[in-house]
Automatic annotation (TrEMBL):
Belongs to the glycosyl hydrolase 35 family. It is found in: Secreted, Extracellular space, Apoplast. Residues 679-762 form the SUEL-type lectin domain. One of its GO terms (biological process) is carbohydrate metabolic process. Its EC number is 3.2.1.23. It catalyses: Hydrolysis of terminal non-reducing beta-D-galactose residues in beta-D-galactosides. GO terms for molecular function: beta-galactosidase activity; carbohydrate binding. InterPro entries: BetaGal_gal-bd (IPR048913), Galactose-bd-like_sf (IPR008979), GH (IPR017853), GHD (IPR041392), Gly_Hdrlase_35_cat (IPR031330), Glyco_hydro_35_CS (IPR019801), Glycoside_Hdrlase_35 (IPR001944), Lectin_gal-bd_dom (IPR000922). This is Beta-galactosidase.
Length: 762
């Protein structure tokens, strides 16, 4: 998918691709490096370079980024005396060794700009200021050491530290956040540029918190403001988030990552974000000569309005007119003898200090609707085979300890799963008993004498939880098996190596007696039996373990089925809405965890579709394997494809025409030959291979609503649909001028009009 995704980013007006370097991917075991397959960092950078883009390399090696353990390999946890991210010799030794290895590898391929390569910027550390105070006197020396170590690697390109206002010279301090044009105090030296390393395009999802997005208008406003204030570099986090395959997501982070980014999880254009940002980028690049050759001046245009002007001479001038007022209606300002109407909370960009090329609040690009189309069902019991997971008892445990062990330090991240087991004697069978388990993460499934009695879980912001269930005990020896489950490792915070998870206290209330089993003889087993025999592989050695599907669902059951790849090129996904919680594999490759049973405050799952890259698939005979922790129903699973099925545009006659109408920089500075008669337009475009098959709605006049809900208003041109159908039907793309002339007359003279069109792509 790399070439396609990079090309879409380039088409969106980007100049560079940022990427982290994932230490726990590239050195999963100490001294054992892996740059194969999709871990091939050099190949990725060369692909970016081949498409004419630069690279900004965020080496970290701590990266956070909702990635398990913040990108640090777990073996680092067991280095004697280590304290992560502090003035600590063991940590500094391994961090420097890793950074040197990465830089040496990239230098050998001549990938730095100083060697003619694409890498123009590198990052060391990541948002360290957030935790620095917690390390007391060990924090500031670490910052200075990290900066000196990085610069000493002699890459020939600058280094940056994000959210580190006191980044030592010559390392550049940078901003992360939603509003760096307003919150960034600026470079800590006049020799450093203003850099925004993370402009968040949405708010990433976690289990237990409400889903929030960010509008295209808000992203555009704050990006333009940062540039207006002299910003040199803006990186969108994320422009494409993609999929947390396998077990790479951090704790309580879904498999789908930044699906609301300009390129969604599947690589489809998220409209209008992608298109609106493309217009913004083009309008800023129209200003590049004055931006690069002039110092900016700033002056007030009103109480909450101001201008940022870059003017070298009468032929090289660009202006950003800013309206900070988001509460009132449009505000009229006066600039260089002309009047400009600024919508609330918006910035107008004037590449020649006269004509508005773009306004951040006026979205003239299309909106798109993504639809999942079911291609194959798995609703027949003959399609499925199953393997019931073995529930270990104390007698079958792998090792024992007289205490509750910490989960992560016991599994060493080799599995999400750790069995805690114990046994005790019961003199009678009818005594009422209650089991209470306190845990720090992240899920718990409880079994007594091999029978399931209940589950419990925490959430991203409240990791501590309690399971309390009545115990169905028998006379004699009873066996309690508690499965602790991690849904990703923590990814941030000070003293990450000291974080704990798993069971913290276990008690049984029997009649009037409370028995505490916290300090007791416990048996342990790391992982599940299905993991140990690698049931997810299409291997003859595991075929004997599978049996016919029994349709009586029970927790901890593995399922497998065979399917053919859907025809065509649309992205493929697995619909797991009928399942509970677990992990899925296709042809031996994990497509990530799923947790459909975790519902938001509206009662909806956070994610039901898991992305299956087409490169994972064969034309036919694909193996699907599921580990279901709860009682999901595999007969409700289906395979589908994702595509943009509807496109919609809503453009007012007061909007600027498309930026492409400027036809390049030569029409701004010196030889202005623009056709000022160009009009704003509704521009619609279906995905490649699809055409506009029907116009669902069309109104020129005063349509109400937006692209989600709409209706004709009091003013409506009766020929709206006919005009649009003539221009668009049967075409992959079309462009309709928003003008009375185009609709053969003015349906309501003296009233501002707009055109709203909703169309179907087939």
């Amino acid at each position: 998918m790399w070439p396609y995704l990079i090309s879409k980013a380039r088409a969106g007006g980007l100049d560079a691709i940022d990427t982290y370097v994932f230490w726990n991917l590239h050195e999963p075991q100490q001294g054992q490096y892996d740059f194969s397959g999709r871990k091939d960092l050099v190949k990725f950078i060369k692909e970016v370079h081949a498409q004419g883009l630069y690279v900004c390399l965020r080496i970290g090696p701590f990266i956070e980024s909702e990635w398990t353990y913040g990108g640090l390999p777990f073996w680092l946890h067991d280095v004697p005396g280590i304290v992560f991210r502090s003035d600590n010799e063991p940590f500094k030794y391994h961090m420097e060794r890793y950074a040197k290895m990465i830089v040496k590898m990239l230098k050998a391929e001549k990938l730095y700009a100083s060697q003619g390569g694409p890498i123009i910027l590198s990052q060391i550390e990541n948002e360290y200021k957030n935790v620095e105070a917690a390390f007391h006197e060990k924090g500031p020396p670490y910052v200075k050491w990290a900066a000196k170590m990085a610069v000493g690697l002699q890459t020939g390109v600058p280094w940056v530290m994000c959210k580190q206002d006191d980044a030592p010279d010559p390392v550049i301090n940078a901003c992360n956040g939603l509003r760096c044009g307003e919150t960034f105090s600026g470079p800590n030296s006049p020799r450093k540029p203003a850099i925004w390393t993370e402009n968040w395009t949405t708010v990433y999802q976690v289990y237990g918190k409400e889903t929030r997005s960010r509008s295209a208008e808000d992203i555009a406003f704050h990006t333009a403001l940062f540039i207006a204030k002299g910003g040199s570099f803006v990186n969108y986090y994320m422009y494409h988030g993609g999929t947390n395959f396998g077990r790479t997501a951090a704790e309580y982070v879904p498999t789908s990552y930044y699906d609301q980014a300009p390129l969604d999880e599947y690589g489809l254009l998220r409209q209008p974000k992608h298109g609106h940002m493309k217009e913004l980028h083009a309008s800023i690049k129209l200003c590049r000569k004055p931006l690069l050759s002039s110092k900016w001046t700033n002056f007030s245009l009103g109480h909450l309005q101001e201008a940022f002007v870059f003017e070298r001479n009468s032929h090289e001038c660009a202006a950003f007119l800013v309206n900070h007022d988001g509460r009132s209606n449009a505000t009229t300002v006066h600039f260089k003898g002309l009047s400009y109407k600024l919508p609330p909370k918006s910035i107008s960009i004037l590449p020649d200090c006269k004509t508005v090329a773009f306004n951040t609040a006026q979205v003239s690009t299309q909106y798109g609707t993504r639809l999942a189309t079911r291609r194959q069902k798995f609703d027949s019991i003959e399609q499925w085979k199953e393997y019931k997971e073995y529930i270990p008892s104390f007698d079958k445990s792998s090792f024992r300890a007289n205490m509750l062990l910490e989960h992560m330090n016991t599994t060493k991240d080799s599995s999400d799963y750790l069995w805690y087991t114990f046994r005790f004697h019961q003199n009678s069978s009818n005594a009422h008993s209650v089991l209470t388990v306190n845990s720090l993460g992240h899920n718990l499934h409880a079994f007594v004498n091999g029978e399931f009695i209940g589950s419990a879980h925490g959430s991203h912001d409240n990791k501590s939880f309690t399971l309390q269930r009545s115990l169905p005990l028998k006379r004699g020896t009873n066996y309690v098996s508690l499965l602790s489950v991690m849904t990703g490792l923590p990814d941030g915070g000070a003293y990450l190596e000291r974080r704990v998870a798993g069971l913290r206290r276990v008690t049984i209330q029997r009649q009037h007696e409370l028995h505490d089993f916290t300090t007791y003889l416990w048996g342990y087993k790391v992982g599940l039996s299905g993991e140990n025999i690698q049931l997810h592989r299409n291997d003859a050695s595991v075929k004997a373990y599978w049996s016919r599907y029994a349709s009586s669902s029970q927790p901890l059951t593995w399922y497998k089925a065979i399917f053919d790849a859907p025809v065509g090129n649309d992205p493929v996904a697995l619909n797991l809405a009928s399942m509970g919680k677990g992990e899925a594999w296709v042809n031996g490759q994990s497509i990530g965890r799923y947790w459909v049973s975790f519902l938001d405050s509206d009662g909806n799952p956070y994610q039901t579709w898991n992305h299956i890259p087409r490169s994972f698939l064969k034309p036919s005979g694909n193996l699907l394997v599921l580990l279901e922790e709860e009682k999901g129903n595999p007969l409700g699973i289906s395979i589908g494809t994702m595509s943009t099925t509807k496109v919609c545009g809503h453009v007012s006659s007061s909007y600027p025409p498309p930026v492409i109408s400027w036809q390049g920089e030569n029409q701004i500075n010196g030889n202005r030959k623009r056709n000022h008669g160009r009009r704003p337009r509704v521009q619609l475009r279906c995905p490649h291979g699809r055409k506009i098959s029907s116009v669902l709605f069309s109104s020129f006049g005063t349509p109400s609503g937006d692209c989600e809900t709409y209706a004709t208003g009091s003013c409506h041109a009766s020929n709206s649909r006919a005009i649009v159908e003539k221009a668009c039907l049967g075409k992959e793309r079309c462009s309709i001028p928003v003008s009375s002339k185009n609709f053969h007359g003015d349906p309501c003279p003296g009233i501002a009009k707009s055109l709203l069109v909703d169309a179907k792509c087939s």
